[in-house]
Design brief:
17% of the residues lie in helices and 36% in strands. It contains two helices and five strands. A five-stranded antiparallel β-sheet has the order 4-3-2-1-5, covered by helices on one side. β2 and β3 form a beta hairpin.
Amino acid sequence: MYFYNSKIGLMQINLDKVTNRFILIINNVCYGTYHSAKATADDVYIHTTSCDEWDMLDGEVYNVPDDINGWVKKLY
C-alpha cells in the first residue's frame, strides 16, 4: 500500500489480491486499476487519473512525486 497526501486529499495505491491489479483511490473513491504501482503513480504525476479535481491541476502542483519511490510505502 502506498500513500500520497496531495493538494486535494489522500491518495492511495492498493493491491487487489483477487485481480492482482493496483487500485488508485483518491479520497475513498476508486479511480481505476493498473498493472503496476509504478503505472498508477505515473498517472497521478501526469494528471491522467479520471479524477477531474486532480487532473485539472496539471501544471499547477509542483510537489507531486515523479515516481512510486516518492510515495509513502506501508506494508500490510
